[in-house]
Amino acid sequence: MLTFDHVHFYYKKGLPVIEDMSFTIESGEFVAIVGANGCGKSTIAKLMDGLLLPKEGHVKFKSLDTSNSVDLDKIHTQIGFIFQNPEDQFITTTVMDEVIFGLENIRVPREEMRSRLDYALQAVQMEDYLEAMPHQLSGGQKQRVAIAAILAMRPQMIIFDEATSMLDPQGREQVLSIMHELHTQGMTIIHITHHMEEVLSAERILLIHEGRNEFDGDPLSFFETVPVTEYQLELPFAVRLHHKLQLKTPLMANWKEMISSEWFIN
Fold it and tell me: How far apart are CA 260 and CA 102, in angstroms?
């Protein structure tokens, strides 16, 4: 679905940010991209969506190449991008206008806008905030409105670029729940984060270090084989607890379920 083919990128010549990176993300995958601050995660996200263009190599979404200006317009309608700060995406003064703004830009018929609006707001549980002002909402609610605006566009992939990092625990849980619900419905999800607790439930992890892909595999293999702390990352509580108690049960994303399973077996 999305392919990096020997991609190189730099902001200043001679100071590479991404070096000879290649990988493919298949339709319907839930992929977490992790790494220390400054490793190139957000640059990768922007390269995926064509917000940045590779200096060498190619980024392709299906048969579309981000380096082709004609293809790029089509890519932007098929890949949604959720920023770290939702206010960076807000343009209008009400939740309803925010969601339909993009639909107007792509000339969705007026009669279809209402159904898309209703679907998107219901998907993020914000249907009761149609006339609310986005800037007066809580952090979690703002992010849910940003997600609704993307969902209304009917993308095939959504990139969450540190989308939970500015939220309180409740807001983070709400956004993560939306991610997983969208994934169960077949949406391709790219979750860029430095919160290791959030990656256990992903299907696949890409570890980025100094502009290179250091690991590509499932979460269990990642935490079993990668010296996470050497990459300035923290082990999730569930993993630390699993090691500390020397549990016999498989590692799970939900530490409470893991402990309950262990007690049941014993």
Answer: 46
CA 172, 215, 61, 162: dihedral to nearest 10 degrees?
20
What is the pLDDT at residue 86? 86
CA angle 109, 85, 56 (to 5 degrees): 85
Helices 95-105 and 110-123 pack at an angle, to 10 degrees, of 130
Q: How confident is the model at residue 38 (pLDDT cuts 50, 70, 90)?
A: confident
Using CA atoms, how far apart are residues 230 and 223, in angstroms rounded to an integer? Answer: 12
- pTM of the predicted protein model: 0.88
Place of tokens 């317009």: 73
In whole angstroms, give the CA distance from residue 164 to residue 176. Answer: 8
Alpha carbons 191 and 103: distance in angstroms, whole number: 25
Burial of 35 (0-12, 13-18, 19+ CB in 10 A): buried
CB distance 171 to 142 below 8 Å = no
Quote the CA–CA distance of 86 and 259 in Å, as a whole number: 36
What distance in Å separates the CA atoms of residue 129 and residue 140, rounded to the nearest whole number?
Answer: 13
Task: Check if the beta carbon of residue 249 is closer than 8 Å to that of residue 265.
Answer: yes
Residue with tokens 């309803």: 96
Mean pLDDT on 15-29: 95
Q: What is the dihedral sign for C-alpha 89, 131, 141, 179?
A: negative
Structure tokens at 128: 């009761």
d(CA 137, CA 195) in angstroms, rounded, equals 24
Q: In angstroms, rounded to a whole number, what is the distance separating the alpha carbons of residues 124 and 99? A: 12
